[in-house]
UniProtKB/TrEMBL annotation:
Protein name: YqhG
Organism: Salirhabdus euzebyi
Highest taxon listed in the record's lineage: Bacteria
The organism's taxonomic lineage, starting at the top: Bacteria, Bacillati, Bacillota, Bacilli, Bacillales
Amino acid sequence: MEQQAIHNYLHNFFSLNQCEIKESRQGKITVKLNEELDRLLLNRPFYWEYIKKIGQEGETATLTFISSPSMRHEEGEWIHFGSPRLHQIFNSQLAQGRYTMLYEQAGQTALNPWLVNNIMISYKGRQKKDEILSIGLHLINGTMVFNFMELLKKISFSSVIPDYSYTISPIVRIPSAFNRINNYLQHYLSEQEDDWAKEAYEHFDKEKEILNHFYESYTETASDDEKELLKERYENEVDHLEKRLLPEIQIKIINGGLFYLSETTSNQFIGK
């Protein structure tokens, strides 16, 4: 599921950035970058500087990403949660700006506002696990739809409102929409298994017990000045253990925006 989420995320990321998708199938995607993403992802400033000086159009790179373990033998770059390339793509979105506003190209029609958030949840314990949630909230009736970016795959968008279309003003205010999404996330997390957190606490307790024995053996024969130094070192070591081993959940919005969709598309997403 996590690797499928990565594939869907990459497909939508490159589509929304108007890159040519040469191939996209389960676990594999090949894209021809535009100049902006070539500059952001490939770090070859001297090439682009030279091309501009000689007045030529540069040739952007074509990249293939493999996200399915069963396809790792195929030619392409293996990408997964924690891989440098995926985090580079996340960071490129921060460089571009996290939020966008897009309009469905649906002809002469009213367009409904949706607040969309793509969210990464990181579970940190003895091991780290990441997952991506894509949530769309209808700003007219408050309906929340999940795997939202997957639903947007086949819809054409424009950064300007199409001729003869018009937008409907939101009934649900943006701050309220964010609160609703946050409340859902808290509920979602409360229903997840917590074995990983219990295991992290148990491991922390064992490590701290070893640390306690170590410092107790030294403080028995230490002078007052040495005890003060040992206490400071002990507290620093405990602080380091807490940061390294105690369970923690981090929630980060990768990107999102306002998507204006036709009534027909909105009803399809809601299931009417």
